[in-house]
Amino acid sequence: MGRLSKRGWKFAQGIALAASIAFALPLLAQEPLDSNFAQNRASTEAVSAADENTGSLVSANNSGEVGAQDASPQPSAPQSGDETQPATGIQNTQLAVNPITGLVPVSAANYVPLTLKQRWRVYWKQTYFSYGAYFKPVMFALVLDQTTNSPSQWGGGFRGFGLRVASRTASGMVQGTIRAPLAAALHEDVRYVYSGRQSRKRRLLYAVEYSFLTYNDHHRPTLNVAKLVGYFASTAISTEWHPPQHSVARYTFVNGSEQLGLSVPINILQEFWPFFARQFTHLY
């Protein structure tokens, strides 16, 4: 293993050590990272309770018992509340990482931009503490690298596969670490926002288009600069532990473009994920 490779593996080991130390940080938080579904359920129950109270108010008004209701007012669910409450549910569930695509999906309806605290939580979950953070590196290492014996210097077998998985995983961690603060500075959303469209063709085109675009805090389309920089920068850094390249610039451009291209089918899968999930549920 060359000089650059040894130096690079030390760099990768440093990332792994930092990830291990960071594993304890969410445990110190008062609110667990995986409480989204419980919060969403509580939010749904609150909406149901509000609806029941509203129904009781209407019944009382119709029966002439308005005075009794005024003496003991009940919480109502006005039209504005119908808009606010679902937004809270979306705000909670948007922090869930898809275990296959590794993306954090959110509905376009009642869009709510991420706060800095939520960005921090999404970064840890999407980069380290979710199945999606490791499923893609394993699959890409197996399908794209191991089958083509790339790089050939790492050989085949379990050792070669292990090196390729470690390389893909480290690259993903570097990419996420670069993207998160840059996206926050540029007010870019790091989640996948569903199109909300009905036509399959339009949804397909949307998924391709938003492999290069994202939304800003005002829910307006913008070039996904943080994603692009993260892909190409992490590819350039990965040359530190890869075998020596004849041209680092060419390697960075080719492999960074490959990473960007792979995001297209991932986005398509995420856009149609509810359909695939229903089909899978019906099978089992």
Please tell me what the overall shape is. globular
Q: Count of helical segments?
A: 12
Q: Let me know the average pLDDT.
A: 77
The arrangement of helices and strands along the chain is HHHHHEHHHEHEEHHH
SS class = mainly alpha
The span between the termini is 48 Å
Number of strands: 4
Provide structural commentary.
The protein has 12 helices and 4 strands. It has a domain at 96-283. Strand 3 and strand 4 (221-223) form a beta hairpin. The protein starts with a helix and ends with a helix. 66% of the residues lie in helices and 4% in strands. The strands form 2 sheets. Strands 1-2 form a two-stranded parallel ribbon. It has a two-stranded antiparallel sheet with strand order 3-4. With 284 residues, it is mainly α.
Helix-strand blueprint:
Layout: H1 3-22, H2 25-28, H3 36-62, H4 66-71, H5 79-93, E1 105-106, H6 116-127, H7 132-146, H8 157-186, E2 192-193, H9 200-209, E3 213-215, E4 221-223, H10 225-238, H11 248-271, H12 273-283
Parallel strand pairs: 1-2
Antiparallel strand pairs: 3-4
Key phrases:
284 residues, mainly alpha, two-stranded parallel sheet, two-stranded antiparallel sheet, 12 helices, globular, disordered N terminus
